[in-house]
Amino acid sequence: GENVEQHPSTLSVQEGDSAVIKCTYSDSASNYFPWYKQELGKGPQLIIDIRSNVGEKKDQRIAVTLNKTAKHFSLHITETQPEDSAVYFCAASVAGKSTFGDGTTLTVKP
Amino acid sequence: KAGVTQTPRYLIKTRGQQVTLSCSPISGHRSVSWYQQTPGQGLQFLFEYFSETQRNKGNFPGRFSGRQFSNSRSEMNVSTLELGDSALYLCASKAGVNTEAFFGQGTRLTVV
Q: Which residues of chain B neighbour A57 with C-beta distances below 8 Å?
Protein backbone atom coordinates (compact mmCIF):
# COMPACT_ATOMS: atom_id res chain seq x y z
CA GLY A 1 0.00 0.00 0.00
CA GLU A 2 0.88 3.67 -0.03
CA ASN A 3 3.52 4.96 2.36
CA VAL A 4 3.97 8.67 3.09
CA GLU A 5 6.98 10.05 4.94
CA GLN A 6 6.93 13.59 6.29
CA HIS A 7 9.86 15.69 7.52
CA PRO A 8 10.66 17.34 9.81
CA SER A 9 8.52 16.18 12.71
CA THR A 10 9.02 19.49 14.50
CA LEU A 11 9.92 22.90 13.09
CA SER A 12 10.52 26.13 14.95
CA VAL A 13 10.90 29.42 13.09
CA GLN A 14 10.99 33.10 13.91
CA GLU A 15 8.00 35.19 12.92
CA GLY A 16 8.47 36.46 9.38
CA ASP A 17 10.72 33.59 8.33
CA SER A 18 9.74 30.87 5.86
CA ALA A 19 8.86 27.29 6.74
CA VAL A 20 9.22 24.26 4.49
CA ILE A 21 7.76 20.81 5.12
CA LYS A 22 8.57 17.90 2.82
CA CYS A 23 6.77 14.65 2.05
CA THR A 24 7.59 11.63 -0.07
CA TYR A 25 5.16 8.97 -1.25
CA SER A 26 5.59 5.48 -2.65
CA ASP A 27 2.57 4.77 -4.88
CA SER A 28 3.01 6.30 -8.32
CA ALA A 29 -0.77 6.00 -8.83
CA SER A 30 -1.43 8.68 -6.19
CA ASN A 31 -2.87 11.70 -7.95
CA TYR A 32 -4.17 14.06 -5.28
CA PHE A 33 -2.01 15.66 -2.58
CA PRO A 34 -3.75 17.75 0.10
CA TRP A 35 -2.17 19.54 3.04
CA TYR A 36 -4.04 19.95 6.29
CA LYS A 37 -3.56 22.17 9.32
CA GLN A 38 -4.73 20.91 12.69
CA GLU A 39 -5.08 23.22 15.65
CA LEU A 40 -5.46 22.01 19.21
CA GLY A 41 -8.85 20.46 19.85
CA LYS A 42 -9.96 20.66 16.24
CA GLY A 43 -10.11 18.37 13.26
CA PRO A 44 -7.65 18.87 10.36
CA GLN A 45 -8.55 21.60 7.89
CA LEU A 46 -7.44 21.73 4.27
CA ILE A 47 -5.09 24.62 3.54
CA ILE A 48 -3.99 23.79 0.00
CA ASP A 49 -4.01 20.85 -2.39
CA ILE A 50 -2.42 19.90 -5.68
CA ARG A 51 -3.22 17.36 -8.35
CA SER A 52 -0.73 15.24 -10.23
CA ASN A 53 -1.11 17.20 -13.48
CA VAL A 54 0.18 20.38 -11.80
CA GLY A 55 3.71 21.12 -10.59
CA GLU A 56 3.08 24.10 -8.33
CA LYS A 57 0.18 25.91 -6.73
CA LYS A 58 0.15 29.08 -4.66
CA ASP A 59 -2.41 30.70 -2.39
CA GLN A 60 -1.22 33.92 -0.77
CA ARG A 61 1.53 32.96 1.69
CA ILE A 62 1.20 29.23 1.08
CA ALA A 63 2.57 27.24 -1.85
CA VAL A 64 2.88 23.58 -2.69
CA THR A 65 5.24 21.97 -5.19
CA LEU A 66 5.02 18.47 -6.62
CA ASN A 67 7.73 16.41 -8.27
CA LYS A 68 6.04 13.32 -9.68
CA THR A 69 9.25 11.76 -10.93
CA ALA A 70 10.89 11.90 -7.52
CA LYS A 71 7.56 11.27 -5.76
CA HIS A 72 7.87 14.15 -3.36
CA PHE A 73 5.88 17.27 -2.60
CA SER A 74 6.53 20.20 -0.31
CA LEU A 75 4.62 22.88 1.57
CA HIS A 76 6.10 26.37 1.71
CA ILE A 77 4.82 29.02 4.10
CA THR A 78 6.30 32.49 3.73
CA GLU A 79 6.18 35.40 6.18
CA THR A 80 5.11 33.10 8.99
CA GLN A 81 2.89 34.44 11.75
CA PRO A 82 2.22 33.12 15.29
CA GLU A 83 -1.23 31.94 14.16
CA ASP A 84 0.50 29.57 11.71
CA SER A 85 1.59 27.51 14.74
CA ALA A 86 -0.17 24.14 14.43
CA VAL A 87 0.36 20.56 13.27
CA TYR A 88 0.55 20.16 9.50
CA PHE A 89 -0.21 16.91 7.69
CA CYS A 90 0.47 15.97 4.11
CA ALA A 91 -1.49 13.22 2.39
CA ALA A 92 -1.33 11.23 -0.83
CA SER A 93 -4.60 10.02 -2.30
CA VAL A 94 -5.63 7.53 -4.94
CA ALA A 95 -9.18 6.45 -5.75
CA GLY A 96 -10.47 8.28 -2.71
CA LYS A 97 -8.18 6.64 -0.18
CA SER A 98 -5.82 9.03 1.62
CA THR A 99 -2.60 8.09 3.38
CA PHE A 100 -1.31 10.73 5.77
CA GLY A 101 2.18 11.64 6.87
CA ASP A 102 2.93 11.63 10.60
CA GLY A 103 2.61 15.38 10.89
CA THR A 104 4.90 18.36 11.52
CA THR A 105 4.49 20.52 14.59
CA LEU A 106 5.25 24.08 13.48
CA THR A 107 6.00 26.69 16.13
CA VAL A 108 6.30 30.32 15.07
CA LYS A 109 8.05 32.43 17.71
CA PRO A 110 6.98 36.08 17.93
CA LYS B 1 -23.78 25.32 5.51
CA ALA B 2 -23.35 23.11 8.56
CA GLY B 3 -20.03 21.32 8.93
CA VAL B 4 -19.33 17.70 9.77
CA THR B 5 -20.85 16.80 13.11
CA GLN B 6 -19.53 13.99 15.29
CA THR B 7 -21.18 12.72 18.42
CA PRO B 8 -20.39 12.26 21.17
CA ARG B 9 -17.32 14.49 21.63
CA TYR B 10 -15.97 12.51 24.54
CA LEU B 11 -16.47 8.93 25.64
CA ILE B 12 -15.04 6.75 28.40
CA LYS B 13 -15.49 3.01 28.12
CA THR B 14 -14.21 -0.07 29.90
CA ARG B 15 -12.12 -2.79 28.29
CA GLY B 16 -14.32 -5.43 26.66
CA GLN B 17 -17.24 -3.10 26.04
CA GLN B 18 -18.35 -1.92 22.63
CA VAL B 19 -18.90 1.61 21.38
CA THR B 20 -20.74 3.32 18.53
CA LEU B 21 -19.68 6.69 17.17
CA SER B 22 -21.79 8.84 14.87
CA CYS B 23 -20.97 11.19 12.03
CA SER B 24 -23.26 13.50 10.07
CA PRO B 25 -21.57 14.71 6.88
CA ILE B 26 -22.00 18.02 5.12
CA SER B 27 -25.30 18.14 3.29
CA GLY B 28 -24.91 16.71 -0.21
CA HIS B 29 -21.70 14.82 0.56
CA ARG B 30 -22.06 11.11 -0.06
CA SER B 31 -18.55 10.04 0.93
CA VAL B 32 -17.69 9.55 4.59
CA SER B 33 -14.29 8.38 5.81
CA TRP B 34 -13.16 7.46 9.30
CA TYR B 35 -9.68 7.90 10.77
CA GLN B 36 -8.03 6.99 14.04
CA GLN B 37 -5.59 9.57 15.38
CA THR B 38 -3.08 8.70 18.09
CA PRO B 39 0.13 10.47 19.15
CA GLY B 40 2.26 7.51 18.15
CA GLN B 41 0.57 6.43 14.91
CA GLY B 42 -0.69 9.68 13.43
CA LEU B 43 -3.80 9.60 11.25
CA GLN B 44 -4.71 6.05 10.26
CA PHE B 45 -7.39 5.37 7.66
CA LEU B 46 -10.15 3.06 8.90
CA PHE B 47 -12.69 2.93 6.07
CA GLU B 48 -14.65 4.96 3.56
CA TYR B 49 -18.33 4.69 2.72
CA PHE B 50 -20.02 6.01 -0.38
CA SER B 51 -23.75 5.71 -0.98
CA GLU B 52 -24.11 3.13 1.80
CA THR B 53 -21.31 0.90 0.42
CA GLN B 54 -17.86 0.44 1.90
CA ARG B 55 -15.52 1.59 -0.86
CA ASN B 56 -12.14 1.43 0.90
CA LYS B 57 -10.82 -0.24 4.00
CA GLY B 58 -7.67 0.27 6.04
CA ASN B 59 -5.64 -2.27 7.97
CA PHE B 60 -7.66 -2.55 11.14
CA PRO B 61 -9.00 -5.73 12.79
CA GLY B 62 -12.57 -6.86 12.28
CA ARG B 63 -13.52 -5.36 15.67
CA PHE B 64 -13.76 -2.07 13.80
CA SER B 65 -16.80 -1.83 11.58
CA GLY B 66 -18.97 0.84 10.10
CA ARG B 67 -22.04 1.54 8.09
CA GLN B 68 -23.68 4.35 6.21
CA PHE B 69 -27.35 5.15 6.05
CA SER B 70 -29.42 6.38 3.12
CA ASN B 71 -29.13 9.97 4.41
CA SER B 72 -25.30 9.60 4.29
CA ARG B 73 -24.95 9.65 8.06
CA SER B 74 -22.40 7.11 9.18
CA GLU B 75 -21.63 5.15 12.30
CA MET B 76 -18.57 3.24 13.32
CA ASN B 77 -18.55 0.50 15.90
CA VAL B 78 -15.70 -0.92 17.90
CA SER B 79 -16.38 -4.17 19.74
CA THR B 80 -14.39 -5.77 22.56
CA LEU B 81 -12.55 -2.55 23.35
CA GLU B 82 -8.86 -2.67 24.18
CA LEU B 83 -6.74 -0.07 25.96
CA GLY B 84 -4.94 0.60 22.66
CA ASP B 85 -8.19 1.74 21.07
CA SER B 86 -7.98 4.96 23.06
CA ALA B 87 -7.69 7.65 20.42
CA LEU B 88 -9.33 10.55 18.66
CA TYR B 89 -11.68 9.21 15.98
CA LEU B 90 -12.18 11.60 13.11
CA CYS B 91 -14.81 11.54 10.44
CA ALA B 92 -14.42 13.35 7.12
CA SER B 93 -16.92 13.95 4.35
CA LYS B 94 -16.21 14.63 0.71
CA ALA B 95 -18.23 15.67 -2.30
CA GLY B 96 -16.22 13.54 -4.75
CA VAL B 97 -13.51 10.91 -5.00
CA ASN B 98 -10.35 13.03 -4.86
CA THR B 99 -11.69 16.26 -3.45
CA GLU B 100 -11.26 18.20 -0.25
CA ALA B 101 -12.09 16.25 2.89
CA PHE B 102 -13.94 18.20 5.57
CA PHE B 103 -13.20 16.87 9.02
CA GLY B 104 -15.35 16.92 12.11
CA GLN B 105 -13.92 17.77 15.52
CA GLY B 106 -13.65 14.12 16.40
CA THR B 107 -14.73 11.84 19.22
CA ARG B 108 -12.17 11.37 21.97
CA LEU B 109 -12.46 7.74 23.14
CA THR B 110 -10.74 6.67 26.32
CA VAL B 111 -10.69 2.99 27.23
CA VAL B 112 -9.96 2.21 30.88
A: none
